[in-house]
Fold:
Amino acid sequence: MTNPIIKLSNITKTFGDKTILNNLDLQVNKGESLVIIGGSGTGKSVTLKCILGLLKIDSGSINIFDRDIEKSSINEKQEILKKIGMLFQGSALFDSLNVWQNISFGLIKGKRIKQSLAKEIAIEKLTQVGLKKDIANLYPSELSGGMQKRVALARAIATDPEIIFFDEPTTGLDPIMANVINDLINNIVRKIGATALSITHDIESAKKIADKISMLHEGKIIWTGLSSELEKTNNKHVKQFIHGKTEGPIEINLT
Ligand SMILES: Nc1ncnc2c1ncn2[C@@H]1O[C@H](COP(=O)(O)OP(=O)(O)OP(=O)(O)O)[C@@H](O)[C@H]1O
Ligand SMILES: [Mg+2]
Structure:
């Protein structure tokens, strides 16, 4: 039996009268790379935010490293969060901090590492994601979208986390840059032996970075399979989604 490092059991999350997650179950095993796919607005980012404790779930339980995070003290939660890196959808870099300060934010605030050492680590991470160290003093607004993603990736891995979340790591990038990011994710996850939970609309990216893929639909995981099984499945929802068909069981909500 493998031991899940992240375990969501019966999670429900509502906003007002809208139920976004409806008794959702999800498990990610140690060292595994799992990708969640699903339509826009189905609750993929909300799922990650619930795991990180940025949103409070209505019911169910979230276990990380065998700890129920809802029942953990603030200190225990902080200890858990220190072992997690996150690449937010849209990069979400701090505008007022330069590149190295963005990358080292968690090292200085979370791990209380001295500025000079944190800067050295930040620059090492910059080169790991294929950027030159001379951009360390630039601000996010001075970078292209692809560079911002890489800086956000460097920030996500700065503390050598045991778990990394990637929310839409390739969205908005050209196909070549998307592949550069896919390769970086694969190399980094393998190199630091991290467990990865990612979200993407980009099916090609999902197939490249995932061991397993799960599809979220109407608040639940409706399909999980190996990356290699995605194209072969008979699941009608998955087939419609990956081929982008307008006809099928998935209702298209244009409002
Ligand atoms: N803080 C919030 N308050 C109210 N509603 C929210 C909040 N955050 C998310 N939602 C709603 O929850 C639903 C799911 O949002 P979420 O951001 O998880 O979608 P998603 O699956 O990540 O979509 P996308 O692929 O477009 O990023 C949406 O209807 C959204 O409006
Ligand atoms: Mg999202």
